[in-house]
Amino acid sequence: MALGDAMFFRKKAAKDTENKKQQTRSPEYTLSKSLESNKKLFNEIFKNDDTFVMRFFENQKFTEIKCCILFIDGMVKNEIINDNIIQPVVQNTMLKDSGDVIGTIQNQVLVSNDITRTSDVDKLIKAIITGDTVFLLDGSKEALVIKTFGIQTRSIAEPETEKVITGPREGFIELMTVNLTLIRRRLGTPDLKFKFMTIGVQTQTKVCVCYMDNVVNHKILNELYQRLESIDIDGILATHYIKELIKDSPFSLFQTIGFTERPDVVAANLLEGRIAVLVDGNPTALTLPYTFWEYFQTNDDYYTCFYFASLSRLLRIIGFLITTGAPAIYVSLVSYHQEMIPTPLLLSISSARQGVPFPTVVETILLLFVFELLREAAVRMPSNVSQALSIVGALVLGQASVEAKIVSAPVVIAVGISGITGLLVPKIRGEAVFLRLFFLILSAFLGLHGYVIGVAYVLLHLCEIRSFGVPYTVNLTSFDPQDIKDTVIRAPWWYMKLRPKLIAADNIIRQKTTGRKS
């Protein structure tokens, strides 16, 4: 789908959002001064919910001061409720002398650094659902929202899919407040901004947009806000929901929004003028704009010597070319261009194919299909079983297939090389699978001409894509050293003086000129 079509549907969704909100809006509730009436109100709202807890208590000296707290069992810290709410109110002896009892409780009794006073029932409902505690007082039409969130989460650990040899070992977890703290710790500046939004009619998921105010391109930031505000969906359970709803070229095979589980990667992206989007309850952050070169960049590139990092990146790019093109080139040479194969090798291939009942393209597709089956099975199985499954699949099935003359040995080699090189670039694994099949089918009909046509089509498609207005293949044809310093190779840090021009348009100076020569 073209960018114009995508924007049309987004605008149409934005127009329908308000109507749907009107249809799904909850009935109008109001608090009263009667604690008994408020009790009935919240019992009606949370009826048939056994996790909803009401706890009534009184001041031990002035029994006419009746209170009630509301919370969801399992989402709060019981120690905070017992020690900072119930005990201070029950044991306090100065409440009777105050005219504004609820104000006295808020400012002089409760022990908490986050207390909000409100009479908005919708806000109170939202607070209870998200793990806070609501404090009600008999005789007051206002309530207090006290921060008591205490859900159990896993500890901070290195992400399994983004391991590094050197560098930080921390990764995001499911709790947004912890993730934002990990980012804040790396960027100790007031220019780091966090903007919260709520998306999802039913889930009411908290979403955070992170950016550096003195570096970000505000045109891109405003475009992101417009796309996020146009989302109208029942629930957001992961960042990839948002990724699919706001990306450019939604039917394109390539991703125009990046993702990571590492706070150091997010911090590095923010320093370049990019924007990060985090979703509460998910350990993955989205980064945008996203360009084609980022498929081949890893965080390890910036923690090792730039010579070795550049070599590793070149290997990844070559690996991508091999994994997508090796089966297609093999089929082309064997089926159409035998004259390009050395005679001894051609005789060896011909001998290996004796007795194989399938054409070369059929056995290649068959082996690729089996390879993907084994890969998917290994991913879904427990780790101790997946390793054995991979070995059995690669050795036993491959050798048995060759001996049974179902496939030839050269095809096994070509598909094996394609599969191994595909592991070099895990970020583009899904795209590589489809490109591999696309090139293979074209080569089966047109030989090397089909492969060249397929490569040209993909290049034209890449040049057409935009990520929030930034060309997907930015700097592909540039000869400016500052433009290509972090694309095919990774230049040394003292040479990377400028941020990407089209991403950080307002502030492209990364560092001042040093004593080193450029």
What's a concise summary of this model?
Helix content is 46%, strand content 11%. It is an alpha+beta fold.
Description:
By secondary structure, the protein is α+β, with helices and mostly antiparallel strands. 46% of the residues lie in helices and 11% in strands. The chain contains 16 helices and twelve strands.
Keywords:
5-stranded antiparallel sheet, 518 residues, alpha+beta
Ordered list of secondary-structure elements with their pairings:
Blueprint: H1 3-24, H2 35-45, E1 52-58, E2 66-72, H3 78-91, H4 101-109, E3 115-118, H5 121-129, E4 133-137, E5 143-146, H6 176-186, E6 192-199, E7 205-212, H7 218-229, H8 239-246, E8 258-260, H9 263-271, E9 275-279, E10 285-288, H10 306-335, H11 343-352, H12 360-380, H13 383-403, H14 409-422, H15 429-446, H16 448-464, E11 466-467, E12 470-471
Antiparallel strand pairs: 1-2, 2-4, 3-5, 4-5, 6-7, 7-9, 8-10, 9-10, 11-12
Helix pairs in contact: 6-9, 10-14, 10-15, 12-13, 12-14, 15-16
